[in-house]
Structures are given as structure tokens and as C-alpha cells.
């Protein structure tokens, strides 16, 4: 959790002069403007105290590789390599360094040619950095591109990401819904006892606190009431932990006794009244076909003492202890409900109070809304009537289709290639993407149209030979399913996959890099600044390097595959040609014009 | 669709019909023609309810000259809602095809708690307090007072309803409880009293079993139903239990203490009336001398629960002289409470018949059988005289009087069992006196006698010949239907061994074995990682479920399970369970997937469907036998053996297996559905147990699936799910094609 307020990071690390070097163990301390390294052995000569201003960049090993390395490169060419004990440590430092470099970079640069470099080095927040890194980690293709162009110097970091703003944002905005749900992990109240002394320790992290607040509104309320007026935060959690411990011992009577002495403790020990009230409100919203509470109303046999006693509920306890009983099942249900609801608040986790307040607010709003929702009622009724129908006796009404959303670009590429083969069209794939999210209704309409067309034609046609019809149907069905098969991930039969592995990899790589380059290339037109001009030139050079490689591939494959490969390569080449033509035309135009206007633009 | 069965045109709201639905209707029609009772077993998932509704309403429509009334009994309120919404569908269809001639009035009836719309009343916590709160506003004496003193609160909905008098009727249509409330709000009438009134006029009434079977309720709600009625008990596999429970009472120490308080309160009231309005008590005395236990024409709002004894057995003679005077009656009650208290002091388990008990009451407390029999009516009369409206406070004394009346009325089919403590917790004294009924035929007898056709139907009535014996009636039609299938939509399996090949069972000696608990946990863990959407687990009892879930929690198994799916659990608190179910459905709807832990014989097992994605797999952990050391069960078994020659073992197995079948049957509701069932106990592989399962499960149980271990079951599940998924592919492919067409 990289906290913005965090001013100093101290971690154990080894300094290495090279990757192979075993390194000197010591402590790495990072502050806003410099980092220092103090070896454990004070006599050791390896000591560093370097300002971030002089650091140009940082590299690091991937999570999960052999070593957790961080490499800081200096302006003058020197570098500092640190090895950390684990990846989390490294990542904390890495994030910190990234933001520190960005910060000092901006502060350090006196007056750069601002007009020429419009988006050279934006200041990156740690969160932004994290997001980018995460994206790269998740998507190996993206990572390859990033390596090829950004590290290869063709595009700047900012340029690379500028075209992916949407990806970043989308990823970010989707976050509360999908990415980080609450962990479905009950905070086990199992305390850590060390066996020797009578001390019992509980571990509380902000995540756990959020969970406690969400699952136990009474604790949340108590927190808001007591802290900091009545007790400090620490006292509060100590008390809470004590209550949890009492529960974990399952000694109801002891819990009751303690609660009698300490009224604040009693808040934690008693049953959660707020939950009970909430439940009573919620029960009115429940689908009546599920509502078992309503049965109680009709159940005259289980009047107190009527009917036969159920065999189970024999947990006899004095009524005075009743409020202190708490069952695990209750906790389980509440937990699952909270997890299902997901992360409802969007607050930094560190600040306990604001978390509590935000939760209280959302809860309040939710309950207020519930009370008067006629719309919900209607929806519920509709749902019931839909549920009561026996679906397979009924002619289908609304088709249950969900809009397609293709996530993995490779899948998409595969399918597009297959389409290209079948239609022999040379569509450049971009245009199609839009069409993939067809609404339910549209899809249905089109299907209906097809069917009605067939119906119509079938009527005008003289009767078809049933054998022929059967054959056609059979063929169709097979075709559909085999096509489906192709579009899926079967590794052996896809068009691309019939190619040798190396060729395929290469093709895919080139395809994606061409896509990337073209995107940047076209986006730099019309050229208005010198910066854009150099960029376009750089891009053109890069593209012209790929061009011969494509030709090479085309020629290198076996003759039986050549046709297919050339079909694959053709659109790429065409696109490149178009780009080159445009570039040449533009250059000519420019040189013609530059004669008229000697000062450039 | 519309078709003929002999002389009846049947209107069926779907385009297609299953063959077994048709066969079911034909049999049903024969029974109706013969004006006799019938017993029909048809698997779940074949649209039994709609077939029933469709045939009976069509039958009624085809005979307009002699309309029959249709009384449909469900076990639970949510089933009532489901039935009514199916009926709505059907009714709309009939209206479309027949026009206004098809108009019927159909409504559900429930207690005040579910129908009341007065916000101050309905906010009360439970049913009894809602009833009492209503009575405080609507009792005749309260309204009389309010007429003079406008400051006394009354219920405006009830007043409006009363004012409209004969105009207050429901127009034809199908009314669910919610519709009734909405209509009540619209008109400003009390939906509860409106519904109770309309029940007499309606063509179709849907309500709970107890409104017919429990004499306390039936006596006030159902006593005026016409003979030309068809009564249907749906999901009736447990009907014998409902019948015996309707006539059983138990008394604990708390009951006695409460009853003593009630008696004291009544005696204070009597003193107060003596001082202020002695005429009232004298009037009551005179009425009792004339032989009327109750005033004949009680306003509906004053009616309390009726006499617990069956209508035929209630004495139609005058209340005996020695309890006519209020204070004498109270002293009789005091002596009775004292006597029972004395009996509860016992250190040993005692069991005796009603006759012996009554004799002992007579000698020790000086209360004879006739006085006992009149206890309930006398109490009712006294409470009316004393104008007590907070009836919820008087449940204890009511229990005592119920007990007295029942024990004074019946001499056979009952026994009285006194247990000083629970068998399983001998150190905690918890004395209880139970009057338990063993003969299910007693409570249902009046129903068979009163109505021309009674239909008993369920998905699991195997063995079908047992029910007529248990309920003591002669069905004109008794048939069991099988499911016609185009594909295997259920996949039952029997799991006998865990992943370590050791047997799994909930048998007494293996029950708390940690190895078995672990194996069960591992089984679930395998399944949650394989099966999509919802999984339902049934355990044999609450205590077993609590124990095993706790142990899974401690060993970390639960945590692993939670990594795949959310976990919800049934608790004894219905509100919580309902909310948990609601969340479970949400989790299945949104694709998160969830597991629901539930208890066989519990409320969820009785009435909640886990169809479609709400239940792709159900696991029955163990065989849900009843607690065999229970004295009540032993007494019942003895009675069954002596009167019906049913062997103890047979009955226990029958009972356990019908529960198990009921549990697993929850996963399938139509043939488009798909569900797997795992019976996880080695005892299911034995032929004598397994053969008691209903035919529609047995016919799908392959020999290869009879003796599985966890890994084999997981494999089968994986394959099954895959196969099921592939059946959907054609549909998806066609849709894909249309999208492709559209985009090019």
C-alpha cells in the first residue's frame, strides 16, 4: 500500500556491483530527494548517498523471478543494483523510486524546451505507475510492445500510454465493480497465542478493519461514538479484540459477566441490534416466493408449546444470557452478504474514521432508498411471473443473449483471420470491433429477419428433396460447430496455428507492432510541430525495418502455407504502404512549402 | 393449448404439454368424476401444479350449472404465492380464449401478519402480537367504547370495511397476498377481513394446510366450505406429520408459570367486574346454563382460535355446572396447573395413555373428564366476557386448556410422555410433558368426510400404498407417474467413500469421526471447484451441521471452499435464513456462485426450490433419519406397529428416504433444467435403503454410480457439466451466426 504521505521508506537490501555479485547486506533508506545505503558492517566501504536528481531511470526484475532486483541508472552511466529479500519490499521501493525520480526530474529540469516536448515526462503518481505496471504484467503482448518501442527508444513512455488512456481508465473505472472485490476470507477470530505467556495477539490491517465495519454495524457505530472522545483508537481495538476473544472461547456466561462490568465492552458482546433492524427492513424487499418469515404467520402449530418440539433446538440457556449468544452461522451469512455486496465505498483504507463514516453513510442512504421503491416492487413481480413459467413448454420469447465482449486480443486476432479467410475480404480489423457489441434486440431482429426470409423463400420454392435438405442442415450444423471450434482456443486447428510455431509468433509480433506503430504514426498527423515531425520520421524508419522482415517470412514458409501467409501478411503490407505513401507525399508537400515559408511552420 | 379430455375442454396455458401431465390430468379427471379421493405421485420438474390447476379450473368451467369450489392447500406462504402466480398465468389464458365467461375469483388467505396494512399493527414483532394488536383495535367491545369516546383508537381500514358492509367484495380475478394488500390500500378496506369474507364466495382458495387440518384454525376459517369442493394437498409427502402435529401439545415449566400469571390476571379482572359490572358475569353464567358455550354469532373480529378438538368430537351439551361460575373455573385451572407441575417434578421418564392420565387427574385434582373437555370453550367464553384483547399474553393458559380438552376428548391414538431432561443433555433439567398424537388419520378424517374429492399429490409418495394406510382412506385413484425424458436432466450418484477410500456415513458411530468430517469437506471442496453457479448441501440436523461447519472452519477447509464460492447457511432464525437465501440467489444470478448449507426436515428443505442455476448440484450428507431415541418417535412407532402392522425399521427408512428424496428433488423444476444429486453416505448403496427412493430417481441411477469415491464423483460431475454445456452450444452458435451476419 503505497501511501502518499509516506515520506521515508526503509528496507533491508543488498547492494550489488553487478547482477552476479553476492552483494553487501545493509539498509536502504529512501527519502523524497535522495537515497542512502548503509551496510550492516560499518567497516565496509560500500556506502551510498545519492540524490534522485542524478538518477535517470530504474529497472527491476519481474515478480516471481529468482531475484528481487532494483536497478537505478545514473545520468553519467553508473548504476546501483539492490537485491531485496522479497518482492513486496522491492515493489514498495520501486514505486517510491518511480515517483521520486519523476518528482526530482521535474524539479531538477530548469527550463526545458516546453513547446517541443509537450508530454515528455508527466508526473506520475504512484497509483498511476502501479496501474501501468499491472497492465503490463497482465498482458504479455503489451509488455513486448512496450519493451520494443519504449525501451528501444522509438516512442516515449508517455506517448506509449497516451494512446492507451482508455485502457487505463477503463481498467480503473471498472475497479470497484470487478477487480478488487472483498476477499472472501473470514477474519478468523482465532487469536495467535504464543503458548508461554497469557498474552494473545490479534492482527488488524486496514482491510480487516473495513471488513469488520462492513460486517458489524454496531462496532462501526461504536467506533464513531467512542473514538477519539472516550478512548483512543488503540484502546478501542484492544477492547474489540478482547470481546472477540471471549466469543472464541464460546463461554457465554463469562462473556455476560464481563459485559456487566464494562458497558463499552458490552457493545461488542451483545448481539448486533443494528443488524436485526436492518434485517427487518430488508425482509420486506424479499421475493415473496422465498419469504419463509411469512410462514410463521400461518403456522399455528408451532405456537409456543404446540405441536411436537423439534428435535434440535435444545440449547437451553437462561434468558439473561440470550443476548450474548452469537452463532458462527450468523457470522457466516453476514460475511457472505457483505462480500456479495462488494466494495461499496471508495475511501483510502488507512483512515479508519473516514472508512467508518463512509460506510455509515452508504448504509443510511441504502435503507432510505429501500423504503420507497415502487420500481423495485414492480421488477420483483415481473421476475416472479417470469420464474413461474415453465420454459420448455413455452415458445421462446426474448432471446437470452449477452453482448459479446472480447478480452484477449489474441482471440480476437484469430477470429478475424478466420473471417478474412472465409470472406476473402481484406478488412483491417479495427472497424469490426465496434460491431461486436450488438445489442440484444438487434441480434434478435437480425436472427428473426434471417428466419423469416428463409420461411418466405421456402414457400416460393418448390418442395425440396428431403435428403438434400437433410444434407444441407447437417453440413450447416457441422460447419457451425466446427467454425465455433476454430474460433475457440483449440491449439491445433486454428488457421494461424497450422503455421510453424516460430512463424506464428513472429507474425503475431509483427502484427501487433505494426498496429502500434501505425496508430502512433497516423495520430501524429497533421504535423504541426517539430516534435511531431521527428516522431513521424522515427516511426517511419521503424516501420520500414519491419517491412522487409515480413517479406522474408512470406518467402521462408513452405509452399503449401505460402498462400495463407501471404493472405495474412497482405493487409499488413498494404497498410504499411499506405503509410509510406502518405509520409512521402507529406514530405514533398512540406519541402515545396518550405521554399515559400523559410521559417518552418 | 386447448384440448379435450372426455367431455371436458382443458385450457392449458402453454404451447406444449408433457405426456405425463396429460396422463396426470386424465387420472385426476376420473377421480373428480367419481367424486372420490385420489393419490397421485408425479416427479418434480414435470409441472404438476399447472396441470392440477388447469384441469380443475377447466373442469369447473365445463360444469357451470354445478360449480365446484377448489381449495388448494400449500405448506408454506411462498408456495402459495408461487401457485397463485401460476394460476394468474392460467387465468389470463382462459380469459383470452373464453372471454368473460372464464372469470373466477381466486385468492390466497393468510394470517393478519401477512395481510394487515395498518402500519401500527403490522409493525408488531410476531404473529401473535399482530393478532392481539388487531384485536385491540377491532374487538366489538373496543368499538362500542370508541363509538362513545372518539379518543379510543380504532382501525380505519376495519371501520371502512364494516361500513361498506355488503358492498365490500372483491371483483373477479386472481389475488396474491400482495394484490390483496394493494387492493385493500386502494379501497381503504382491511384486506384480512375482506379475504376471510371472500373465501366463502371464491372459486379458488389457496391457503396453508393448517387452515384445513388444524382444528383450532379450521374451526374459524373453513367451517362453512361447501361439500362440492375439490381439496388438493400439494407437496403432501409430509402430510402425516402435519396431521399429528396439529393434535399435539407440550407443556414446559415456563408454560406453567405463564399460565399461573394468566390465572392471576383473570382473577383480578373478575374482581374488577364484580365491583363495576356484575351483570356481565351473571349474563355469562345464564348463557352457560342454557347450554351455549359460546354466543352463536360472534363478530369475525372477536373470533379466537377455535377448539383444538375435531369438530365431530366436540360435545354439544351444556358446560358442566361446576365450571360455570368464573371463579370456580379459575380454581379448576389452578388445580390443573398445580397437578401438572407436580407431574413435571418426576425424576424418571413416564409414559401413559390418556385414560390413565385422566383418571389420575380425577383422583388427585378432582377434575373429571367432562370438565377437562370443556376447558377450552369455557376459557374462550371467559376471555370474551372479561373483554381481554391482548390475547398474545394469554397463550400459556390457552396451551393448558388445549391440552386439557384434547386429553379429555381422546382415549386412543395419543400418549402422554413426561421427560425430566433431554436425553442428550442429562445434566440440564428441562422437564416437559408432551401430549402426542400418533394417528395421522384423526386430523384428516373430517376433511375426507366433508369434501367430495381430496387430492393428495407430491413428487415423492413412495411407497404409494403406505399413505392410504397412514391416513386411513380409500382412494379411487392411486397412481405413480414416471418422467418421460428426452435427455438425462438429473444425474444421481451414491458416494460411499471419501478421497482416502474410507467409508463416509452419518451413522452414530462414524458421525463425529474427524476423518468422515474431513472427507465430507473434501467432497464439497472438489465440487465447488467443478460445478458452476449454485450448490445446495443438506445435513441431517442442525446440530450436525453446526458441528461440521465449525470443524471445517477450524481445519481451514471452509476457507478453501470460500475461495470458490460464497457460503450461506440456514439458521433457526427464519428472518436470517430468508435473507441468506435472497443473497444466495443474488450470488447465483450475478455469476459469483454460492453454496447453501441447509438441513433436511428444515424449513428450506420443505419449500424452497433450487431450480436452474440456483442449484446445479445438491449433496445430501448422510441419511436423514429421525432422532431414534426420541420417546415420541418410539411411541409412534409402537402405535404404528400395533395398529397398522408397519415395522419400525421400515417406517424409519421410509421416512428418512422420503426426506432425502425431497431434498434432492429441489434442484429440478422443468425438463430444460439440469441437476446432479449426490447421496453421500455408504448406507445408500444398500438395496433396502436405496429401493425406497422414488422411481424417477432410481431410473436415472446407473449401476456404475452406486459406489463412488470422491475423485470418481468429481470426475462424473466434471463430465456431466461439460456435456450439459455442450448442449447449449448449438443455441449459442446460431446466435453467433446472426451477429456475424449483422456485422458484415
From TrEMBL, chain A:
Family the UniProt entry places it in: Belongs to the TFB1 family.
Lineage summary: Eukaryota, Viridiplantae, Streptophyta, Embryophyta, Tracheophyta
One example of a Gene Ontology biological process annotation: DNA-templated transcription
Domain called BSD: residue spans: 111-172, 196-248
Keywords from the UniProt entry: Nucleus, Repeat, Transcription, Transcription regulation
Keyword Transcription regulation on entry: yes
Name recorded for this polypeptide: General transcription and DNA repair factor IIH subunit TFB1-1-like isoform X2
One Gene Ontology term, aspect cellular component: transcription factor TFIIH core complex
InterPro entries per the UniProt record, alphabetical: BSD_dom (IPR005607), BSD_dom_sf (IPR035925), PH-like_dom_sf (IPR011993), Tfb1/GTF2H1 (IPR027079), TFIIH_BTF_p62_N (IPR013876)
Keyword Nucleus: yes
Location in the cell: Nucleus
Primary gene name: LOC113727315
Region feature (Disordered): 1-24
Automatic annotation (TrEMBL), chain B:
Keyword Iron-sulfur tagged: yes
InterPro entries the UniProt entry points to: ATP-dep_Helicase_C, DinG/Rad3-like, DNA/RNA_helicase_DEAH_CS, HBB, Helic_SF1/SF2_ATP-bd_DinG/Rad3, Helicase-like_DEXD_c2, P-loop_NTPase, RAD3-like_helicase_DEAD
Subcellular location(s) per record: Nucleus
CDD domains, A to Z: SF2_C_XPD (cd18788)
Swiss-Prot/TrEMBL keywords: 4Fe-4S, ATP-binding, DNA damage, DNA repair, DNA-binding, Helicase, Hydrolase, Iron, Iron-sulfur, Isomerase, Metal-binding, Nucleotide-binding, Nucleus
One Pfam family here: DEAD_2
Molecular function GO terms recorded: helicase activity
Entry-linked Gene3D superfamilies: P-loop containing nucleotide triphosphate hydrolases (3.40.50.300)
Cofactor dependency: [4Fe-4S] cluster
Principal subcellular localization: nucleus
Reactions mediated catalytically: ATP + H2O = ADP + phosphate + H(+)
The keyword DNA repair is assigned to this record: yes
Domain Helicase ATP-binding residues, every copy: 7-285
EC class: isomerase
Family: Belongs to the helicase family. RAD3/XPD subfamily.
PANTHER family: DNA REPAIR DEAD HELICASE RAD3/XP-D SUBFAMILY MEMBER, GENERAL TRANSCRIPTION AND DNA REPAIR FACTOR IIH HELICASE SUBUNIT XPD
Stated name of the protein: DNA 5'-3' helicase
Lineage: Eukaryota, Viridiplantae, Streptophyta, Embryophyta, Tracheophyta
Amino acid at each position: 500500500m503505497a501511501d502518499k504521505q509516506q515520506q521515508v521508506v526503509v528496507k533491508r537490501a543488498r547492494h550489488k556491483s553487478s547482477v552476479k555479485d553476492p552483494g553487501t547486506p545493509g539498509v536502504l533508506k529512501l527519502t523524497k530527494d535522495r537515497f542512502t545505503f548503509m551496510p550492516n558492517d560499518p567497516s565496509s566501504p560500500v556506502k551510498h548517498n545519492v540524490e534522485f536528481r542524478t538518477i535517470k531511470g530504474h529497472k527491476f526484475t519481474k515478480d516471481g523471478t529468482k531475484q528481487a532486483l532494483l536497478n537505478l541508472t545514473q545520468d553519467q552511466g553508473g548504476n546501483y543494483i539492490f537485491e531485496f529479500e522479497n518482492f513486496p519490499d522491492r515493489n514498495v521501493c520501486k514505486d517510491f523510486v518511480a515517483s521520486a525520480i519523476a518528482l526530482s526530474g521535474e524539479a531538477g529540469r530548469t527550463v526545458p524546451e516546453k513547446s517541443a516536448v509537450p508530454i515528455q515526462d508527466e508526473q506520475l503518481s504512484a497509483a498511476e505507475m502501479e496501474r501501468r505496471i499491472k497492465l503490463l504484467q497482465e498482458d504479455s503482448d503489451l509488455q513486448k510492445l512496450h519493451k520494443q518501442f519504449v525501451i528501444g527508444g522509438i516512442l516515449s513512455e508517455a506517448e506509449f500510454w497516451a494512446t492507451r488512456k482508455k485502457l487505463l481508465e477503463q481498467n480503473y473505472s471498472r475497479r470497484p465493480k470487478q477487480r478488487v472485490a472483498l476477499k472472501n476470507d473470514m477474519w478468523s477470530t482465532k487469536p495467535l497465542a504464543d503458548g508461554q505467556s497469557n498474552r494473545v495477539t490479534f492482527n488488524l490491517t486496514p482491510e480487516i478493519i473495513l471488513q469488520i465495519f462492513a460486517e458489524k454495524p454496531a462496532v462501526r457505530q461504536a467506533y464513531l461514538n467512542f473514538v477519539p472522545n472516550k478512548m483512543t483508537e488503540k484502546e478501542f481495538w484492544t477492547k474489540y479484540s478482547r470481546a472477540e476473544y471471549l466469543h472464541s472461547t464460546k463461554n457465554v456466561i463469562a462473556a455476560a459477566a464481563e459485559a456487566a462490568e464494562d458497558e463499552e465492552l458490552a457493545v461488542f458482546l451483545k448481539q448486533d441490534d443494528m443488524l436485526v433492524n436492518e434485517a427487518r427492513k430488508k425482509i420486506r424487499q424479499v421475493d415473496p416466493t422465498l419469504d419463509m418469515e411469512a410462514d410463521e404467520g400461518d403456522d399455528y402449530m408451532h405456537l409456543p408449546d404446540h405441536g411436537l418440539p423439534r428435535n434440535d433446538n435444545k440449547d437451553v440457556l437462561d434468558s439473561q444470557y440470550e443476548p450474548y449468544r452469537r452463532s458462527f452461522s450468523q457470522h457466516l451469512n453476514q460475511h457472505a452478504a457483505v462480500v456479495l455486496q462488494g466494495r461499496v465505498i471508495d475511501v483510502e483504507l488507512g483512515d479508519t474514521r473516514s472508512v467508518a463514516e463512509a460506510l455509515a453513510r452508504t448504509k443510511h442512504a441504502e435503507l432510505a432508498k429501500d423504503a420507497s421503491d415502487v420500481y423495485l416492487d414492480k421488477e420483483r413481480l415481473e421476475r416472479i411471473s417470469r420464474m413461474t413459467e415453465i420454459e420448455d413448454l413455452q415458445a421462446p420469447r426474448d432471446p437470452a443473449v449477452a453482448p459479446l465482449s472480447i478480452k484477449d486480443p489474441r482471440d480476437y486476432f484469430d477470429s478475424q483471420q478466420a473471417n478474412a479467410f472465409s470472406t476473402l475480404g481484406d478488412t483491417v480489423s479495427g472497424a469490426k470491433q465496434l460491431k461486436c457489441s450488438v445489442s440484444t434486440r438487434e441480434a434478435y431482429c437480425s436472427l428473426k429477419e434471417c428466419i423469416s426470409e428463409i420461411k418466405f423463400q421456402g414457400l416460393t420454392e418448390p418442395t425440396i428433396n428431403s435428403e438434400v435438405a437433410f444434407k444441407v442442415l447437417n453440413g450447416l450444423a457441422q460447419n457451425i460447430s466446427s467454425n465455433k471450434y476454430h474460433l475457440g482456443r483449440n491449439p491445433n486447428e486454428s488457421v494461424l496455428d497450422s503455421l510453424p510455431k516460430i512463424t506464428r509468433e513472429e507474425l503475431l509480433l509483427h502484427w501487433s507492432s505494426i498496429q502500434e506503430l501505425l496508430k502512433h504514426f497516423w495520430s501524429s498527423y497533421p504535423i504541426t510541430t517539430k516534435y511531431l515531425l521527428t516522431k513521424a520520421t522515427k516511426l517511419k524508419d521503424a516501420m520500414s525495418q519491419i517491412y522487409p522482415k515480413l517479406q522474408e517470412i512470406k518467402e521462408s514458409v513452405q509452399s503449401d502455407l505460402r498462400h495463407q501467409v501471404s493472405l495474412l501478411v497482405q493487409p499488413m503490407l498494404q497498410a504499411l504502404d499506405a503509410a509510406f505513401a502518405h509520409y512521402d507525399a507529406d514530405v514533398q508537400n512540406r519541402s515545396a512549402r518550405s521554399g515559400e515559408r523559410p521559417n518552418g511552420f | 393449448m386447448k384440448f379435450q379430455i372426455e367431455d371436458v375442454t382443458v385450457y392449458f396455458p402453454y404451447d406444449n404439454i408433457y405426456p405425463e401431465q396429460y396422463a396426470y390430468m386424465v387420472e385426476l379427471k376420473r377421480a373428480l368424476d367419481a367424486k372420490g379421493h385420489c393419490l397421485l405421485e408425479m416427479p418434480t420438474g414435470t409441472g404438476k401444479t399447472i396441470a392440477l390447476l388447469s384441469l380443475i379450473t377447466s373442469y369447473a368451467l365445463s360444469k357451470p350449472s354445478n360449480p365446484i369450489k377448489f381449495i388448494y392447500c400449500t405448506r408454506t406462504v411462498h408456495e402459495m404465492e408461487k401457485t397463485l402466480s401460476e394460476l394468474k398465468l392460467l387465468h389470463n389464458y382462459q380469459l383470452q380464449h373464453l372471454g368473460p365467461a372464464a372469470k373466477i375469483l381466486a385468492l390466497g388467505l393468510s394470517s393478519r401478519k401477512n395481510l394487515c396494512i395498518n402500519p401500527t399493527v403490522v409493525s408488531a414483532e410476531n404473529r401473535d402480537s399482530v393478532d392481539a394488536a388487531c384485536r385491540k383495535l377491532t374487538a366489538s367491545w373496543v368499538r362500542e367504547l370508541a363509538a362513545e369516546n372518539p379518543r379510543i383508537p380504532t382501525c380505519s381500514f376495519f371501520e371502512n370495511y364494516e361500513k361498506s358492509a355488503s358492498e365490500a367484495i372483491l371483483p373477479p380475478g386472481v389475488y396474491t397476498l400482495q394484490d390483496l394488500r394493494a387492493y385493500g390500500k386502494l379501497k381503504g378496506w382491511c384486506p384480512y377481513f375482506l379475504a376471510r369474507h371472500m373465501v366463502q364466495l371464491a372459486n379458488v382458495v389457496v391457503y396453508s394446510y393448517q387452515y384445513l387440518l388444524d382444528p383450532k384454525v379450521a374451526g374459524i376459517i373453513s367451517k362453512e366450505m361447501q361439500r362440492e369442493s375439490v381439496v388438493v394437498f400439494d407437496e403432501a409427502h409430509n402430510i402425516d406429520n402435519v396431521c399429528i402435529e396439529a393434535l399435539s401439545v407440550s407443556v414446559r415449566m415456563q408454560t406453567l408459570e405463564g399460565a399461573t400469571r394468566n390465572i392471576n390476571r383473570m382473577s383480578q379482572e373478575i374482581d374488577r367486574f364484580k365491583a363495576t359490572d356484575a351483570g356481565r358475569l351473571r349474563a355469562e353464567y345464564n348463557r352457560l346454563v342454557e347450554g351455549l358455550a359460546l354466543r352463536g354469532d360472534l363478530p369475525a373480529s372477536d373470533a379466537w382460535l377455535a377448539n383444538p378438538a375435531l369438530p365431530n368430537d366436540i360435545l354439544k351439551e351444556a358446560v358442566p355446572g361446576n365450571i360455570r361460575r368464573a371463579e370456580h373455573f379459575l380454581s379448576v385451572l389452578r388445580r390443573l396447573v398445580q397437578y401438572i407441575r407436580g407431574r413435571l417434578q418426576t425424576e424418571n421418564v413416564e409414559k401413559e395413555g390418556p385414560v390413565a392420565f385422566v383418571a389420575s387427574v380425577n383422583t388427585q385434582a378432582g377434575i373429571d373428564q367432562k370438565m377437562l373437555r370443556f376447558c377450552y370453550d369455557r376459557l374462550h367464553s371467559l376471555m370474551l366476557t372479561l373483554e381481554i384483547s391482548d390475547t398474545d399474553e394469554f397463550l400459556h393458559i390457552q396451551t393448558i386448556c388445549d391440552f386439557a380438552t384434547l386429553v379429555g376428548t381422546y382415549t386412543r391414538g395419543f400418549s402422554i410422555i413426561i421427560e425430566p431432561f433431554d436425553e442428550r443433555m442429562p445434566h440440564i433439567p428441562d422437564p416437559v410433558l408432551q401430549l402426542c398424537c400418533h394417528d395421522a388419520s384423526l386430523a384428516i378424517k373430517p376433511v375426507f368426510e366433508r369434501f367430495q374429492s381430496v387430492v393428495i399429490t407430491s413428487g415423492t409418495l413412495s411407497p404409494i400404498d403406505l399413505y392410504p394406510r397412514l391416513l386411513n382412506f380409500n382412494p379411487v385413484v392411486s397412481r405413480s407417474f414416471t418422467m418421460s425424458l428426452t435427455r438425462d436432466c438429473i444425474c444421481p450418484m451414491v458416494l460411499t467413500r471419501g478421497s482416502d477410500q474410507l467409508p463416509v456415513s452419518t451413522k452414530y458411530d462414524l458421525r463425529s469421526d474427524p476423518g468422515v468430517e474431513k472427507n465430507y469437506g473434501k467432497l464439497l471442496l472438489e465440487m465447488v471447484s467443478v460445478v458452476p453457479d449454485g450448490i445446495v448441501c443438506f445435513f441431517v440436523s442442525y446440530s450436525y451441521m453446526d458441528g461440521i461447519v465449525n470443524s471445517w472452519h477450524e481445519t481451514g477447509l471452509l476457507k478453501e471452499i470460500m475461495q470458490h464460492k460464497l457460503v450461506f447457511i440456514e439458521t433457526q432464525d427464519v428472518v436470517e435464513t430468508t435473507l441468506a437465501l435472497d443473497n444466495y440467489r443474488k450470488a447465483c444470478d450475478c455469476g459469483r456462485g454460492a453454496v447453501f448449507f441447509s438441513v433436511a426436515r428444515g424449513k428450506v428443505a420443505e419449500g424452497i426450490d433450487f431450480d436452474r442455476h440456483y442449484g446445479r448440484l445438491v449433496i445430501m450428507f448422510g441419511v436423514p433419519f429421525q432422532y431414534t431415541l426420541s420417546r415420541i418417535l418410539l411411541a409412534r412407532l409402537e402405535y404404528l406397529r400395533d395398529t397398522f402392522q408397519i415395522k419400525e425399521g421400515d417406517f424409519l427408512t421410509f421416512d428418512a428416504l422420503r426426506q432425502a428424496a425431497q431434498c434432492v428433488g429441489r434442484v429440478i423444476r422443468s425438463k430444460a433444467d439440469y441437476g446432479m444429486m449426490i447421496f453421500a453416505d455408504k448406507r445408500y448403496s444398500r438395496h433396502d435403503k436405496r429401493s425406497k427412493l422414488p422411481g424417477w430417481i432410481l431410473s436415472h441411477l446407473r449401476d456404475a454410480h452406486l459406489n463412488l469415491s470422491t475423485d470418481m464423483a468429481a470426475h462424473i460431475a466434471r463430465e456431466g457439466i461439460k456435456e450439459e454445456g455442450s448442449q447449449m452450444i448449438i443455441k449459442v452458435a446460431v446466435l453467433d451466426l446472426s451477429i456475424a451476419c449483422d456485422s458484415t
